[in-house]
Amino acid sequence: MFSTDDVFQRLASSPFRQRFHLGLKEYEYCMNHGPDTVAQHAADFINRRLAPAQPQADGKQTPMRGHPVFIAQHATATCCRGCLEKWHRIPAHAEMTQTQQDYTVAVILRWIHQEMQRPAPAAKPRKAKPKKSDPQQMDLL
Questions:
Q1: What tens digit of pLDDT does each residue of 107-141 get?
Q2: What is the dihedral of CA 51, 30, 25, 60, to 10 degrees?
Q3: Residues 124, 129, 131, CA angle at the centre, nearest 5°?
Q4: Cβ-count burial 14-37 (b if 16+ within 10 Å, e if not)
Q5: Is 81 within 8 Å of 93 (Cβ atoms)?
Q6: Which of 2, 23, 44, 108 has a beta carbon 3.0–4.6 Å from 72's, enabling a disulfide?
Q7: 54-111: per-residue pLDDT in tens?
């Protein structure tokens, strides 16, 4: 494992990892639920989805959206065992120790903390739904 400072310095040089940011819903989720709840969710996700030696659907077990921890996992390369091995030197195909799990959660929470220091993301404008035309009239022009 690396120090979190070293990892964040290396992640900063990855255009793929740098494109991840909390959206408004995830930002509000963190504000509404607080750091203790988000930390508990992170620990639970790591324990259930990554800690086993052979995680179910490894490489596909972390959604790209839906929870601030999921976004943080992609931003910090803690999304699958392959990324954990490549970026954090946590061996794949071996059950994660509690120390490795704690380290992974700490990396995720540090990224979320950094994101929460940014201004709240702007709400995305909703796309207007197309108006349904009268089924008895046909517009050919």
A1: 999 999 999 998 888 877 777 776 665 556 666 66
A2: -10
A3: 155
A4: eeebeebebeeebbebbeeeeeee
A5: yes
A6: 108
A7: 988 777 778 778 899 999 999 999 999 999 999 999 999 999 999 999 999 999 999 9
